[in-house]
Amino acid sequence: xxxxxxxxxxxxxxxxxxxxxxxxxxxxxxxxxxxxxxxxxxxxxxxxxxxxxxxxxxxxxxxxxxxxxxxxxxxxxxxxxxxxxxxxxxxxxxxxxxxxxxxxxxxxxxxxxxxxxxxxxxxxxxxxxxxxxxxxxxxxxxxxxxxxxxxxxxxxxxxxxxxxxxxxxxxxxxxxxxxxxxxxxxxxxxxxxxxxxxxxxxxxxxxxxxxxxxx
Amino acid sequence: xxxxxxxxxxxxxxxxxxxxxxxxxxxxxxxxxxxxxxxxxxxxxxxxxxxxxxxxxxxxxxxxxxxxxxxxxxxxxxxxxxxxxxxxxxxxxxxxxxxxxxxxxxxxxxxxxxxxxxxxxxxxxxxxxxxxxxxxxxxxxxxxxxxxxxxxxxxxxxxxxxxxxxxxxxxxxxxxxxxxxxxxxxxxxxxxxxxxxxxxxxxxxxxxxxxxxxx
DNA sequence: GTCTATAATACGATAGAC
DNA sequence: GTCTATCGTATTATAGAC
Lengths: 215, 215
Description:
Two copies of one chain form a homodimer. Chain A has helices spanning 3-9, 18-40, 43-50, 54-61, 64-84, 93-110, 114-125, 128-132, 137-151, 160-176, 178-181, 193-211. By secondary structure, chain A is mostly helical. Chain A has two domains: 1-62, Arc Repressor Mutant, subunit A, CATH 1.10.10; 72-211, Tetracycline Repressor, domain 2. The interface between A and B is large, with 57 and 57 residues. Chain A binds a DNA duplex through residues 15-18, 21, 42-44, 52-60, 62-64.
């Protein structure tokens, strides 16, 4: 095989493309850190999945901890960008709430392992880097909608912060436990588009029934 | 100090008490595995907290993996024992549901790190040991209550398995994120008895509003 | 039943060639 | 920008004394 042929075969990740390599490392690291946390993650495992050597990891991110922080930061930036594209104030509290639920679920569905990043961070790091990441955006949008809905009478009186917790737990817990619960109902693929759609519909119905004001 | 004095000082764990040592190891291991998962946990850290040497760990549990399995099994057995003391069929679906919520929350409150054990198991082990542990008990009781409530018309028509997921997520997610969310509201101690009581009341109200049948 | 000492390996990180 | 080779240490596990 000629050198040209070899290069063509590698075209999925061109040699010496810094940006591409960095993305590939972040993708691999996100998986590994989500699965095993900071301590449990293995640099060698990340290197293998990213198809680079561990020396390359250190070249881009210096050490394990910096790589971990970079991995945590990425989803925060992505969510912020998505939320910035919406104007929830222009919607009724009911519609805004349903929009946020759809965003939260579809975002997790696209990255079903991402929530574990934050659980790992919470339990093994006591959330030390959580604050640094300025992760509050989704919480703030949701809080504002809840308060608006209570004010205009479309939601019943609620403890805002507990209700916020419950809404997010309904959306996200589903993805956190799916590997365990797969063993309860092996015939169901909880990550299939159909099941995600059912989850979305049912979650909206559940939450709306829980918080709406009735006569 | 005399040998007698030394022995008295150690009286919290008498020397050469196999049962006590084993419990102490399991307690320490539960903490460590919940915080760091199977790979991330350090045998030396467990040994230090349990106040034994790592050789003692191997004496009782042979290796890391066996210790991990023993740690997973213990909470399952405890929950099964608690549930066996109740006769949910004797209660109305509404009352039975509220009882189960109270049990789930108070159980997590007593061991706020325990849920992370299962999340770790789900994400890093794909729930490989989850099935072995026969952990289904709580799920089964709850499913039965949901189906009974739908049948007698006290609950609205629900997807049983999704609703089960939502109810447990509301009860448990609260504990999983408390270390992270502590940074959002540093003045609140989410594990204080008062906050747990508020969580319990609010969770029951939320869930009941979500699933009750109305005219 | 518990310890000390140590073997054997796994892991993070760096140096230097290309 | 990426690799190979390697250093130093951390970690699991075992052997053998008490």
